[in-house]
Predict the 3D structure of the following.
Amino acid sequence: MGASGGGEDKPFNFLQILCEGVIAGGTAGVVVETALYPIDTIKTRLQAARAGSQIQWKGLYSGLGGNLVGVLPASALFVGIYEPTKRKLLDMFPENLSAVAHLTAGAVGGLGASLIRVPTEVVKQRMQTGQFRTAPDAVRLIVAKEGFRGLFAGYGSFLLRDLPFDAIQFCIYEQLRIGYKLMAKRELKDPENALIGAFAGAITGAITTPLDVLKTRLMIQGQTKQYSGIVSCAKTILREEGPGAFLKGIEPRVLWIGIGGSIFFGVLEKTKSVLAERSSRKAVLAEKDK
């Protein structure tokens, strides 16, 4: 990510970019998830609540441990796919189409990471809404009652939310960084990366809230099967709760993703710069040893 708008002319080393992306993405994902998990739990409970239901304020860290088991590889996989894909696409597209490269790379990274993200999200949200006490119990009982497919409940709605989310968030972030660097005529500092990340996250979080409500309802329904799919879920919510229900949890979601974007992109860029410096030092030492 930090390479866009500057440093893209370095030789393309797929393995190095992949490894650095995996390490940076995994680190950033775990830091964000741990710091902001209670806000996510409140958001999920607000979205799951029917009219007149009381929100439970206890156990705001329910499911964190099990969730981190999924978040670490999912974040690592996402950035590990995103970085080399972005670099390749930026080489292929003219400079004025860099936004298309960022949008596409974000969607491709999200698609790959969804294979880990969805089961993690299903288990997390079932625990956040009090259906299970531990992650292993949740996995075992979901598979026993609903089959392996139960771990991928709401997969379509997840992709409907997350592919546009990843594409839009990373595109806004990358384009803002390019513009800011052109104005500043220098590399950005850590607080600047964090601020741009917060802005990109908050905007994207607000735009995609209705899709997030649909995903939450489909993922937590379990065997009740109130909704047969995305369209059925949308129609039922609209009929029973009105259009306002599609914005349930928007405040904690925007807060959570805005702060999360700040931490994620700040940690991501810092980790990447540390890894890049380490690689440069190793390259210099290797040259000296020749």
